[in-house]
Specification:
The complex is a heterodimer of chains A (429) and B (235). Chain A has 429 residues and is mainly alpha-helical. Chain A has 17 helices and five strands. The chains are: A mainly alpha (429), B mainly alpha (235).
Chain lengths: 429, 235
């Protein structure tokens, strides 16, 4: 029944999308040959700026295989709809973007249309990259063109029906895509606007930090309210709630450190966010990091859900005692008996929103699999947490995670052994 | 400010998993030390890399730094696959992995007590033959020809095998045989493992488990002996 409804919705949306598309994009394709591109002779400064911006956009994370050649693509991205193979964006004439013009590249970034008019899947964050200015797109393009070309053919995607039909994307675009460069908010400072430009555009933070629905879209009204990352089974916390990753009461330095250094006096990045810091944010200048912090701290405070009731927070005394025993034995050494940690090297657990947020997925996974924050330019030798999956059983993990979620005035809720059992079956990643 | 007294707290973690004297806990009074940084490794490999009572987690103490570094890089880049390790080191830079490798290469903790031998006398005899003499008919060099007379390995890239538990040795040899584990070309271990039968794997693992560790568990110097096969890891 649900599927039938979804199908009807999809069909209606596609028809609406095609109609909307035709009415607004008459004669958009093919590229107008009279619209000549700027000659391809950018300065060193432009190319270096492009490299910096490409890092801000974290292009490398998807467009390079772990042991592959830089930007040669080929990496399989698991999505709920099947595997998407990321394309080669080296300047190879035959298999890459060697014959693209700056216009082609800008149109792709700005509208999500490839050079040949193909609609891109939103795994490419064009809904965010549309906010990037023409000058910045040109710089990124100049940088990519300056790299060594790699001849490596793109692999076809392996998406299930109906998601392998690109016409569907017209519907997706109607619902979730708003074309347009970032517009400065004159009521805000230049620093705030710079931060907003980076966070909303190249940073494409909303890709993870906004919940994704069954159609692979995210609602603007829910922006930055947090969401599960499909296929990775990590929870990207809300950046608006003070109870999750909400940054309202954080200092600007701690926000900036978390992004750029990977550790801070308040919390540490692990999992998918460690990747973002490692490949992208560690290379941001202090000025840009500070700007992003200013913008993130200013996000309006709103919570998707009300705080947990006292009844929901109730923990059986036996569970609490068991959790305390595990904590004393295994955790105290680095996290301190009062949960204060030894920050920034060993993060605090008391008052740490990553521990208490509504879904306990992240703390459970960290207890099971441990984790190392990324090695960054400002913290090249991070401190690690060991795995406990082979030492603690499901009841013990549930008890200790429950303990750290409610001890020391933490306002979390208890977790169940079944939740631990489910997460134990996943491969660490 | 950065000096913090963790020593007392450290004792608490040491007690449950290991006999207290086996696992000499480093006196960490400073979170900036390498001992504090590698706490991410200790629940599987022990405080000094001596291993734990879990047979699948190897002793890493005293293995040549070059070998340990090659493994850490391979885990990070996914060319050696074991999800818990791949995840842990995914975002660590070369220089830090090298430092970790050098730290564990320096450690000389005591060896765990030997496990009771598994397998009959004929199996042990076959294992002894492969380890100490090789098998001419199969063009199989002796393990000791590269891994050292005391099986303590050779600098810079040949691992020590002494102190590894039979489950780990058998599991790794099987991975080499199936092509799941690889090393730099020319991959000598691949060529050797392909010449082993399943019984040979069990024999080697069983015989090695019976050997007493040498007094000095240090690896032999680089190119101490001329190796019978070309190995990419030694270049």
């Amino acid at each position: 029944m649900k599927r039938a409804v979804a199908l009807v919705v999809i069909v209606v949306v596609v028809i609406a999308g095609v109609f909307a598309w035709k009415s607004t994009h008459q004669g958009y394709l093919p590229v107008d040959p009279k619209n000549a591109s700027a000659p391809p002779n950018p300065t060193t400064q432009v190319i270096q700026r492009g490299e910096y911006l490409a890092r801000a956009g974290d292009c490398v994370a998807c467009h390079t295989e772990p042991t592959g050649k830089l930007f040669a693509g080929g990496r399989a991205m698991a999505t709920p709809f099947g595997a998407i193979y990321v394309p080669n964006i080296t300047p190879d004439d035959e298999t890459g973007i060697g014959l693209w013009t700056a216009d082609d590249f800008y149109r792709m970034m700005h509208t999500g249309l490839s050079r040949d008019g193909t609609l891109l899947y939103p795994a490419m964050p064009f809904a965010q990259y549309t906010k990037v200015t023409r000058a910045d797109c040109d710089a990124i393009f100049a940088y990519l063109q300056s790299l060594a070309p790699v001849k490596q053919k793109n692999k076809p995607h392996e998406l299930r029906f109906p998601f392998n039909k690109r016409e569907l994307l017209l519907g997706w675009r109607t619902l979730y895509f708003k074309e347009g460069e970032y517009q400065n908010d004159p009521a805000q400072s230049a620093q705030w606007n710079r931060g907003a430009y980076l966070v909303e555009g190249l940073g494409h933070c909303t890709m993870c930090h906004t919940a994704i629905n069954a159609l692979g879209g995210s609602k603007e009204s829910k922006e930055f309210e947090g969401g599960m990352i499909p296929n990775q089974n990590w929870y990207a916390p809300s950046l608006t709630s003070n109870r999750e990753g909400g940054l309202g009461d954080w200092s600007l330095k701690d926000i900036g450190d978390l992004l750029q250094v990977g550790i801070s006096m308040r919390a540490t990045v692990y999992g998918p966010m460690a990747e973002v810091t490692y490949n992208s944010l560690q290379y941001m200048t202090d000025e840009d990091t500070a700007a992003m912090a200013v913008y993130l701290k200013s996000l309006p405070k709103k919570d998707a859900e009300p705080p947990p009731t006292d009844a929901a927070k109730l923990v059986q005394p036996a569970v609490m005692e068991r959790g305390r025993q595990v904590y004393e034995k295994q955790c105290v050494m680095c996290h301190h008996s009062e949960g204060r940690g030894y920050p920034p090297e060993f993060p605090p657990l008391a008052g740490n929103p990553s521990i208490t947020m509504a879904t306990p997925v992240n703390p459970i996974r960290i207890v099971l699999n441990g984790g190392y924050p990324p090695g960054t330019r400002k913290n090249p030798r991070p401190h690690g947490m060991p795995p406990f999956a082979h030492i603690l059983n499901d009841d013990e993990v549930a008890a200790v995670v429950t303990y750290i979620r409610v001890a020391w005035k933490n306002a979390g809720t208890p977790v169940q052994a079944a939740q631990v059992s489910d997460l134990r079956k996943l491969l660490p990643e | 400010m950065r000096v913090r007294h963790l020593a007392c707290a450290l004792l608490l973690i040491a007690a449950p998993a290991f006999a207290a004297d086996e696992d000499a806990v480093p006196r960490i009074t400073d979170v900036t030390t390498i001992e504090a940084r590698v706490q991410g490794c200790v629940t599987c490999h022990g405080q000094q890399g001596q291993g734990t009572d879990n047979g699948y987690f190897p002793r890493i103490a005293g293995k040549p730094a070059g070998y340990l570094y090659n493994q850490l890089v391979a885990f990070r880049d996914g060319t050696r696959r074991y999800a818990p390790m791949n995840y842990l080191v995914a975002y660590l830079p070369d220089s830090y992995l090298k430092e970790m490798a050098q730290f564990y290469a320096r450690q000389r903790p005591p060896f765990a007590p030997k496990e009771a031998p598994k397998g009959d006398a004929a199996l042990i005899e076959r294992g002894k033959a492969i380890v100490t003499a090789g098998d001419g008919a199969k063009q199989l060099p002796a393990c000791v020809a590269c891994h050292g007379a005391g099986l303590t390995g050779m600098e810079p890239g040949v691992p020590g095998l002494v102190g590894l538990r039979p489950t780990y040795v058998a599991a790794q040899l099987t991975r080499w045989r199936t092509g799941e584990r690889r090393a730099a070309d020319p991959d000598c271990m691949k060529r050797i493992a392909m010449r082993l039968t399943e019984r040979d794997v069990a024999a080697v693992a069983a015989y090695m488990a019976l050997q007493d560790p040498p007094k000095d568990a240090s690896p032999e110097a680089a190119n101490f002996v001329r190796m019978p096969m070309a190995c990419g890891s030694q270049r």
